[in-house]
């Protein structure tokens, strides 16, 4: 039952030649995308703009977060050539900016998948020297060696989502840790990487908790912050507690800019990778 009188945001569906081209490229390259696996509401817009978030390390996650529709179970992925296929797909799509993400691989005890992460970043950069690379990583269980493996490949933007405000975090992602996510962001910033994170709203948080979270995050040194409406992917997932108004999203954006974020992307359909190419161009030009 929805506990607010506001309407669910509407999704524009556009299936044009660009959308078909990206869909075909993803399928022919045997790649996974978070766009499809997580049922992202922006898939039609983003693929029509010839942008996609490529997902490595398989399509099965070892965690079962209450908000996420990506398949949970025991992964069977074994594909050492995946970094090359990702790099080739980026080359064929002629991308200027690419976002790469992955499922959680807590089963890979040696490195939590960080070696494949680094190989993917390095190979993508080698084949696409003019393409900037943004990564949206899991927390690697907070393993500093795994994090350094990814950091040493020097992605242009490092992103890891805290997902929600601290008070409700354990109920939203039981196998993660709010403090561990903050530590991951802090490690990235101390390494010297441009760093990004984001949250969902509509899960039972208060307006003040959202603003307090933004202050806590910006104080770490995070430059890019995203806020989007949580949408329940299936009946098995967490219910939407509230649909936040467009005016409130705009208020959060204004507040975020006032406290020091370089970029705040805030809106009902905003997701962590939404218009990431535009964010990248902005952040790079501001840092020149």
Report what the structure shows:
With 288 residues, this protein is an alpha/beta fold. It has a single domain (17-287), classed as Aldolase class I (TIM Barrel, Alpha-Beta Barrel). Helix content is 40%, strand content 13%. It is built from eleven helices and eight strands. Strand 2 (53-56), helix 4 (82-93) and strand 3 (97-102) form a beta-alpha-beta unit. The longest helix is centred in the middle third of the chain and has 14 residues, at 114-127. The protein is globular. It starts with 16 loop residues before the first helix and ends with a helix.
Number of helices: 11
In whole angstroms, the N-to-C terminal distance is: 49 Å
**Mean of residue pLDDT values:** 86
Q: Tell me the domain tally.
A: 1
Look at the helices and sheets and give the structural class: alpha/beta
Largest sheet: 8 strands, mixed
Topology at a glance:
Blueprint: H1 17-28, E1 32-33, H2 34-37, H3 43-48, E2 53-56, H4 82-93, E3 97-102, H5 114-127, E4 132-136, H6 144-151, E5 157-159, H7 169-172, H8 178-191, E6 195-201, H9 207-220, E7 224-229, H10 246-259, E8 263-267, H11 276-287
Parallel strand pairs: 2-3, 3-4, 4-5, 5-6, 6-7, 7-8
Antiparallel strand pairs: 1-2
Helix pairs in contact: 4-5, 5-6, 9-10
Summarize this entry quickly.
With 288 residues, this protein is α/β, with parallel strands linked by helices.
Key structural traits:
single chain, 288 residues, alpha/beta, TIM Barrel, 8-stranded mixed sheet, 40% helix
């Amino acid at each position: 039952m929805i506990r607010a009188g506001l309407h669910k945001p509407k999704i524009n569906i556009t299936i044009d030649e660009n959308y078909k081209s990206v869909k075909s490229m993803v399928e022919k390259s045997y790649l996974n995308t978070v766009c499809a696996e997580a049922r992202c509401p922006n898939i039609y817009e983003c693929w029509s703009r010839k942008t996609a978030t490529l997902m490595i390390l398989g399509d099965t996650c070892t965690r079962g977060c209450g908000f996420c529709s990506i398949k949970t179970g025991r992964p069977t992925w074994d594909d050492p050539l995946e970094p090359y296929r990702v790099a080739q797909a980026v080359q064929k799509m002629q991308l200027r900016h690419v976002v790469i993400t992955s499922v959680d691989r807590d089963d890979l005890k040696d490195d939590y998948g960080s070696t494949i992460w680094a190989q993917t970043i390095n190979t993508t950069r080698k084949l696409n020297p003019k393409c900037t690379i943004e990564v949206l990583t899991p927390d690697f269980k907070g393993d500093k060696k795994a994090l350094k493996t990814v950091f040493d490949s020097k992605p242009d933007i490092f992103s890891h989502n805290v997902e929600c405000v601290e008070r409700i975090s354990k109920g939203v992602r039981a196998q993660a840790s709010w403090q561990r996510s903050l530590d991951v962001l802090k490690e990235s910033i101390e390494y010297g990487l441009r760093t990004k994170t984001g949250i969902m709203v509509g899960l039972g948080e208060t307006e003040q908790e959202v603003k307090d979270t933004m202050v806590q995050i910006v104080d770490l040194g995070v430059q890019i912050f995203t806020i989007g409406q949580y949408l329940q992917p299936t009946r098995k997932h967490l219910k939407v507690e509230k649909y936040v108004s467009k005016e409130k999203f705009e208020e959060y954006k204004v507040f975020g800019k006032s406290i020091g974020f370089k970029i705040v992307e805030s809106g009902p359909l905003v997701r962590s990778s939404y218009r990431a190419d535009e964010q990248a161009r902005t952040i790079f030009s501001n840092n020149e």
